[in-house]
Amino acid sequence: MPSYPKHLKTGSECPPLKENQLRLYSMQFCPYAQRAKLVLAAKNIPYEEINVDLVDKPEWYLKKNAPGQVPGLEWIDHDSKETKFIPESLIVSDYLDETYSQNRLQPTDPYLKAKHRVLIDRFSGITTAFYKIMQGDQKQGVEDLNKNLKTYEEALTATFFGGSKPAMIDYMLWPWFERLPLLSEVGFEFNSDGKLPKVAAWVNAMESNEAVQKIKVPTELLKKFTESRKQGKPQFDFE
């Protein structure tokens, strides 16, 4: 997987896109981009990763994706030779699963797929609480986070939400669970009261997953990035 590890900024040039090369626009610490990377890893899809500075965004990236968010998936169509681009983590992940048939991650049963999508959509309750804690509203954030985590404890009936092995839903939820240790410094300890045994076991199982291990962001780097963001000057590149 060729890559440009440094985050490209305003004034940079977009690296030339090659035919037969799938490209993912990403940011090293972005949990939404990590969703797409987990799918790519789980399905063993080769790709090129281009990191984008999300504060000082390159002009060329804003032309591709006006909101300037990541992930973004880009490729040159084999038949038309047209350059194609897809934004948004869930849309990118679904596209990859539908286009690359190996190791399908979505359930084939429409009802089960719908149930999984409900849990993915309602996960915004956890992400909102997570960022609320990170931004200093600890009391309300912790209360909201524990309340929302209970929903997933009740929904988990097997080792993974997908059953005996991780499915799309597991990879879509995982990035924020990987980041829960960051909250220990501001008063939140995951499963401190022991009321989330099934989710805690799921976390352990996910940590052993090959795709998760391959894409994992080192905790120390996450801490550095988080601290820089708290100071109002996000740093995307660390030596």
UniProtKB/TrEMBL annotation:
Its EC number is 1.20.4.2, 1.8.5.1, 2.5.1.18. It comes from the Eukaryota. GO terms for molecular function: glutathione dehydrogenase (ascorbate) activity; glutathione transferase activity; methylarsonate reductase activity. The keyword Oxidoreductase applies. It catalyses: RX + glutathione = an S-substituted glutathione + a halide anion + H(+); methylarsonate + 2 glutathione + H(+) = methylarsonous acid + glutathione disulfide + H2O; L-dehydroascorbate + 2 glutathione = glutathione disulfide + L-ascorbate. Keywords: Oxidoreductase, Transferase. One of its GO terms (biological process) is glutathione metabolic process. Residues 109-225 form the GST C-terminal domain. PROSITE patterns: GLUTAREDOXIN_2, GST_CTER, GST_NTER. Exhibits glutathione-dependent thiol transferase activity. Has high dehydroascorbate reductase activity and may contribute to the recycling of ascorbic acid. Participates in the biotransformation of inorganic arsenic and reduces monomethylarsonic acid (MMA). This is Glutathione S-transferase omega. It comes from Adineta steineri. The lineage of its organism: Eukaryota, Metazoa, Spiralia, Gnathifera, Rotifera.
